[in-house]
# Entry
Amino acid sequence: MIAEYTGTVPKRGDRVGMAEQAGVFEVADVNMLMQTVNLKSTDGQGHITRNVPWTALKFQSAASR
# Structure
């Protein structure tokens, strides 16, 4: 049995932070089945961090966008 995620579901283009890494990232891809995302750094270098669980994301408030 799979536990149901009750938090915010990320969408492509959302700007988020990660629990264990400093900086702001953009959601590049969402895997609904595995509940993970691929994150692209916003520093202009284009690095992709793959398979980050939704529970490790810190969503930015709408006021800071």
